[in-house]
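Why do we bother with holo predictions? Because pocket geometry can differ from the apo form. Keep that in mind while you read this record for zinc ion.
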Amino acid sequence: MSCTEQPLDYKALHQDAIVVDLHSDTPLRMRRGIDFSVRDTAGHMDIPRLQEGGIDLQVFACWISTGTLLDSCKAKVDELIDTLESQIKKNPDKIEICLTAADAERIIGEGKIAAFIGIENGVAIASDISNVDYFYNRGVRYMTLTHTESSDWCISSGDDEPAFKGLTDFGRDVVRRMNELGMIVDISHAHVDAVEEVLKITTDPIIASHSCVYALCEHDRNLTDEQIRAIAENGGVIGINFYNTYLSQEWKEKADSLYGLIRPQVKMLMEKYKDDDSARYGAIMELYGQITPHMDSLTVDVNTVVDHIDYIVKLVGPEYVGFGSDYDGVPVVPKGLDDCSMVPNITAELVNRGYSEKDIRKILGENFMRVFRQVCD
Ligand SMILES: [Zn+2]
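The structure, written out:
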C-alpha cells in the first residue's frame, strides 16, 4: 500500500455493493392505501426512496397480531401478500419478487430492487403445519416465529410467565418443516428459551431479522452475547433494528417513564381498531411518535446503530451482522436514518471507523445473501 492511498469513497462503495434491509413492515402501510411508486412524505419507504438509499434487496414483512382469531389468520396474511404483490406488479421495471438468492442477484443485476416476502408472527399458519407449505408456495422465504405476545407454540421475548419452555412439540415441527422446505427461521421477538430450542434442532442457519445488542441496551427484544455467539456459530445473521428504544438504554428508560402519558389513548385505539390490524398499528405508531418531542436532549443517530454493528463485529467477526430497519413498523428512528433513502449514512460511518471495503460489503448485504443462498437456493 502506498502512503497516497485514497480513502474509500463511501457513495461509490454503497452504490456498488449489494445492500439488504432484513425487515420492513411496509405492507401494513400499503394496506392503508399508499401508492408505493410515489415518493411519500409520510412513512419510511417507497420505491423512489429505496432507490435513493441504494437498497438492492428489501424484505417486506407481512405482520399479523397474536390475538388474531385462528380462522382469519391465513386470510389476513394472504391479504397483505396480495397487496404487496399488486404494488410490485404495477412497477415491473423497478421491483420484482425474489424466491432464491440467484433470483435476487439476477433482479439486482437488471438494476431493479429484489423484493423478499417475509411473515412476521408464526400465528399466520393458524397452528396448521400444512400452512407452512402453503405460504412457502406463495413465495414467503422467512417467518418470524412469534411477536410481542407468546403464541400457543412459541414464547415471546417479554413473557415473564411462559406457559412452556420456549417451543412446544408443534413449534419444533414448524422449525423442522421450514428447514425441509428452505424457509429461513427468524428468531427476532422470540424468548431466549425459544431461541435455544430452535438452535438445538435447526439444520440451517437462522436469522434475527431485526434485533439489537442487549449489552448496549437492556431490552428483552435484544440479543445477549451468548445468543450472538450461538447465532454466529450456527452461521446465521443478525439485522440491527433502527428503533431508538432498542438502540439506546437512555432512550428506552425515558420512553418507559413517559409511556404513562399515552397509555389511556393506546387503550382507546386498541378498542377502536380491534378488527383492523393495519389501522390500529398505524394509529398507535403515530401516538408513540408523540413522545419524541420530549426526548430532544437525547441523541440517537447513525453512530448508535453502527455501535451495535461494531459490538457484534468485535464479539464474533464481520460475517454475522447486517441491518433490519423495521421501517414502517416503529414510531421513531435515529437521526440521519429518518427514512430508507438515508441508509448510505451507515456506509459512511463504517468507512469513518476504518472498516475495510471487504467487511463493509459483508455487513451491507453479503452476510444475508450467504444465508439466503444456503437456505433457499
Ligand atoms: Zn417486529
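The first strand starts at residue 20 and ends at 24.
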